[in-house]
Amino acid sequence: MNILVLVFKNVMRHRLRSVLTICGIAVAVLAFGLLRTVITAWYLGVEAAAPDRLVTRSKISITFTLPVAQKQRIERIPGVQAVTHCSWFGGVYKDPKNFFAQIALESAETFKLFPEYIVEPEALAAFAAERNAAIVGTTLAQRFGWKVGDTIRLQGTIYPGDWDFVIRGIYTGRDTGTDTGQFFFNWQSIEQRMAQETPGRVGQIGWWVVKIDEPARAATICKAIDAEFDNSADETLSETEAAFAQSFVAMAGTIVRSLEIMSVLLIGVILLVAGNTMAMTVRERTAEYAVLKTLGFGAGRILGLVAGESLAIAGLGGALGLALLFPTVKGVATVLRAWFPAFPVDPPTFALALGAALLVGLLAAVFPVWRAVAMPIAVGLRRID
Amino acid sequence: MAETIVDVQNVHKTYYRDRIPVPVLRDLSLTVPAGEFVALMGPSGSGKTTLLNMIAGIDRPDSGRIIVSGTDIATLGESALARWRARHIGFVFQFYNLLPVLTAAGNVELPLLLTKLSKKERREHVRTALELVGLGERTDHYPRQLSGGQEQRVAIARALVTDPTVIVADEPTGDLDKQSATEILDLLGRLNSEYHKTIVMVTHDPRAAERAHTVRHLDKGELE
Description:
The structure holds two protein chains of two kinds. Chain A is about 55% helix and about 15% strand. Chain A has helices at about 5-10, 15-50, 70-75, 120-130, 140-145, 185-195, 220-230, 240-250, 255-285, 285-295, 300-335, 345-375, 375-380; strands at about 55-60, 65, 80-90, 100-105, 115-120, 135, 150-155, 160-175, 180-185, 205, 205-210, 235-240. In chain A, the strands form two sheets. In chain A, strands 1, 3, 4, 5, 6, 7, 8, 9, 11 and 12 form a ten-stranded mixed beta sheet that branches. Chain A has a two-stranded antiparallel ribbon with strand order 2-10. The mean pLDDT of chain A is about 90. By secondary structure, chain B is of the alpha/beta class. Chain B has a single domain, classed as P-loop containing nucleotide triphosphate hydrolases (Rossmann fold, 3-Layer(aba) Sandwich), CATH 3.40.50.300. Helix content of chain B is about 35%, strand content about 30%. Chain B is built from seven helices and ten strands. Chain B has helices spanning about 50-55, 80-90, 105-110, 120-130, 150-160, 180-195, 205-210, and strands spanning about 5-15, 20-35, 35-40, 65-70, 70, 90, 165-170, 200, 215-220, 220-224. In chain B, strand 9 (about 215-220) and strand 10 form a beta hairpin. In chain B, helix 4 (about 120-130) crosses helix 5 (about 150-160) and helix 5 packs parallel to helix 6. The mean pLDDT of chain B is about 90. At the A-B interface, helix 1, helix 10 and helix 13 of A face helix 2 of B.
């Protein structure tokens, strides 16, 4: 026998209580991990942003369009390597609940600026040749069971009417955080239809994507682009792609902050659950600790016994919570895939959840250890059931 | 003449109940020679358990000295005192105080975890101690599977497994039926006579006190 055996036997002494505490910690760790994963997913767009890409949008709002004629002037700015444009389509697929991003790209060449989207050459060729060609991400295709050749009808909101697109390719993501839930099609299809139905909207795009030669010069180039259109009818606001993605996160800043606060509160919940159990345990075993001290067990060994038990319970709860986290995240990802490009349990979340559980195990033992160690033996021995 | 193993000199101890001082020991002195079997008797509240606790190093006097086996234990810090107890004291409680999650062998092994003995050596010591108290066949029994007398015998095995200088026993027969009490007293007597263990025992029971070589009576914190 050794001290670890005694710790284990103590953990198993009140099985129901230990199991309930472990389950309580597991649920809290699971919720903590889930919230951190949601927060991570929220910032994934920011983290996945390319440092050598800028986004130039209307200074008034992202919802305002810009004239396509700006392109040549942006291309002439020193440091700019390539320029392309994108436009938000905002159509409805069968039901508004089936939300996904639909983006009109300037041309098949636009994909060159986004190497994280891996597209087959045949798909790119079809995209360039066919006005109603679409390329969709793997996640989106899986979500609706689409395959190459399918015709997808979108009901336009920003651009009214029914729009039929034929899927010509399914792109995959280069990185874990790459958004594979998007629907890309050729901007020319909008342009030609607007020319027929709403000529006043011809030559308008949503935002510019600018590839630059040196990420360190991003601020200077942004200033130069915006200066180019200062005091014009279409003033611009340029920023790095990361800042652009961050601005979307900022729109939901309160929600993200609430999630962060909740995740911290959950640690408090775990602490209370574990602390309550350990406090009860030590109170019940006051006489036992007094006996052990009588036998010569010093403060260090008493600390080891109490903290070991607390850590064992918290560790088991943490491990169980993390084991449940992966299938839970998978299930939640199915529900939230329209909103998050990816929903991964990243290593920091894993480490943070496990670390939180173990930290809680230690903290929960602080007061009980102090109580067990500080109580005079003679007083402890009087507390015999 | 045998050397003095326990030397209590002019000890005072006062407890406070709701800030009201309650003197427990008043200028008490006591010597116990090595190999002696001493019984401390007295009415409830006379201070006999307090005195026993002080000899065992689990309580401290307000003043005075307690020298056990040459060490003034009142001067030791908590850690040193814990190590000293592990080496020199075997404590037998009235209510046995075995850990319910451990077998008889596990309980007896507990004090040995504080030593540098190997696992094999510990097992050997445990077997010897349990055989000595007549429980060699019950090593794997849990306390709940033992009678009160057997539990107390396990507690005595735990007390003597480290071969301590002094065995202190606080009402060791106080929770036992007559027959079990007799067996325990026989065992303590044997440890004293055959193995020359110094025993200091607190008891209310005159029959238990009869087994001791010396009986000292306490009343109101003073030895008569």
